Amino acid sequence: TPQSTSPAAHPNSRFTTPLGNCPSISNRWDKPEGVPISAIIFGGRRDKAASLVLESLDWQHGVYLGATMASESTAAAEGQVGVIRRDPMAMRPFCGYHIGDYLEHWLSFEQRLTQAPKIFHVNWFRKGMNGRYLWPGFRENLRVLIWMLNRVDKKAQGVITPAGVMPNPKDIMLQGLDIPKEDLAELLSVSPEEWTEELSDQQQFFDSIGKRLPQAIWQEWGKTRDRFGLEP
What we know:
- Helices cover 30% and strands 11% of the residues.
- The protein is an alpha+beta fold.
- The longest helix is centred in the C-terminal third of the chain and has 18 residues, at 192-209.
- The protein is built from six helices and seven strands, in the order E-E-H-E-E-H-E-H-E-E-H-H-H.
- The model has no long low-confidence stretch (mean pLDDT 92).
């Protein structure tokens, strides 16, 4: 109540409701055999480096994308503005065991899945040189989700870049959306200069995890660096 002298909930608490209340949920959601998963989407809040949407090259690369998920602090209350905070799979505050073992668990699924889900990474918050958001976000994100669904159904093309697979601008449904071509090109670009800084920050984060970080994650980091043509 407003008169209470103590918090009503933990600062990191969530509002929850029974899953069966979701009208769009699969009618097989509680079946013992489970529900097939076609895609997994990771995402962060980044001003630069991270493109609008990225598809992993394979499962191991997808786990690397999840392991390097990050957001930049946006308010003074969170500390210094613009600091990159790594949060693998958005699970770091909730993981009940060592994060390196958690990533190894993700990697192990490749050998146990008959058809691995595609893995994507999205970033709705990329900014241009003037600090303006390049993508409108909100309901317009559905346009990017449609490309992902079409990739799952093998109905859409993709362009292989050093960071992963991205759509051509023409592959995104833009009808009715007033967005400059230059903004879309920047949203779907990868900058070696930005990725030099990005890979350096990833390396520091991986070092902080220690020896229990799976070697496969280091391998993907090295492969990404090599695809960008950066020096070891």
